[in-house]
TrEMBL record:
It comes from the Bacteria. This is BioF2-like acetyltransferase domain-containing protein. It comes from Streptomyces indiaensis. The lineage of its organism: Bacteria, Bacillati, Actinomycetota, Actinomycetes, Kitasatosporales. Residues 159-300 form the BioF2-like acetyltransferase domain.
């Protein structure tokens, strides 16, 4: 394996020099500066997930790669922050490509699961079982150039959204937007709206998981320029009606937790917020807004192109690997079957919403 030695550390054992080298290698790779693959994200996850680890690949005593992951029972591994991370994989110096199963063996892992593997991850990509589209908005030429693109591609979408913002101001009250708000009340409202959305659509409530709530709190308070939370809030008549908590680096903003108050749904406050946020992000020097994988009509309207991400797992022929396969692969195969059949996918979504409605009383 390139890198004659592999050190396995807890994230809080990474010193300033290791974090600096991590970022330098990431820059050398030419990959977008996605905040989920910054060391600060792994360090934050390490504070709320005791199984978080980082394998440091060394050659002649110098780091040539970093592999963040989480380890559970029977050595079952997963991407660090799996469930809330939209960009996953290893950070390797160009030309360094260890064998995936051998790397897992050195780390004491029987398997390694990922669901948003970054494109270009040559170590793990051969083990992917599904390729997914991850829409992005390019803002490198400025917001005016983006809106020109939007008018050409979706003229009705832009016109209707701006009209709804004007209607919101007339019928509810003054509309105000804050790109980087320090408003604990708005954050609580966002989490409440999002939890209700999860329950309403029959999906697992992420904010019912303590580690996710704690992670959001840590990153929301972070001052790290390469990985910090940004709470954007749309107010009407002085009260929040839509909000988004994203994660940003200097040049990339990752779309993370958006939600709105359903009492104002006829004004599409979420879309109004998105357009305001894209304008503010462009002014802040953000070149790319990553909307994340997963189908949504608004993403199709807003995007300029798609990135590719991958879902799958590396599995070693050991007992823990067998346990992973039995526990995950049948369900994953079922999801692939449904995704490939739009009518069936629509029926499944409606069923989930009905189950969520029944659970909610």
């Amino acid at each position: 394996m390139p890198g004659k030695r592999v050190l396995v550390l807890r994230p809080d054992e990474l010193g300033p020099s290791e974090q600096k080298m991590w970022r330098e290698i990431r820059t050398e790779s030419g990959a977008p500066a996605n905040p989920f693959l910054d060391p600060a994200f792994t360090v934050a996850v390490g504070r709320v997930r005791p199984g978080a680890r980082v394998a440091v690949l060394q050659d002649d005593g110098s780091p040539v790669g970093f592999f963040p992951y989480e380890v559970g029972a029977l050595g079952r591994g997963r991407a660090v922050g799996l469930g809330v991370s939209d960009s996953q994989g290893a950070v390797l110096r160009p030309g360094i490509r260890p064998d995936a199963r051998r790397l897992l063996r050195v780390c004491g892992l029987s398997s390694f699961e990922f669901d948003n593997l970054e494109a270009g991850q040559g170590v793990f990509e051969p083990h992917a079982v599904e390729e997914l589209a991850s829409p992005v908005v390019d803002l490198g030429e400025g917001f005016a150039a983006y809106t020109d693109h939007l008018r050409a591609r979706s003229p009705g979408f832009l016109r209707q959204t701006l009209a709804k913002e004007r209607r919101l101001a007339r019928q509810v009250g003054e509309v105000r937007f804050v790109y980087d708000a320090r408003d604990p009340g708005a954050l609580r409202a966002l989490m409440g709206w999002k939890s209700a959305q999860y329950r309403r659509t029959g999906r697992r409530d992420r904010f019912a998981q303590e580690w996710i709530t704690r992670l959001v709190g840590l990153l929301g308070e972070s001052e790290e320029p390469e990985c910090r939370g940004v709470l954007s809030v749309l107010y009407a008549a002085g009260r929040p009606v839509a909000a988004h908590l994203g994660l940003r680096s200097r040049t990339v903003l990752s779309w993370w937790f958006p939600a709105y108050d359903r009492a104002y749904a006829k004004y599409s406050p979420g879309l109004v917020l998105q357009l305001r946020m894209l304008q503010a992000a462009a002014a802040e020097g953000i070149g790319t807004v990553d909307l994340g994988s997963g189908p949504a009509r608004y993403k199709e309207s807003l995007k300029t192109r798609d990135l590719r991400v991958y879902e799958g797992a590396v599995v070693r022929p050991v007992p823990g690997g067998a346990v992973h396969w039995l526990g995950r692969e049948p369900a994953r195969a079922a999801r692939r079957f449904v995704r490939g059949r739009p009518r069936l996918a629509g029926a499944a979504a409606r069923t989930l919403e009905e189950l969520g409605r029944l659970r909610g009383g």
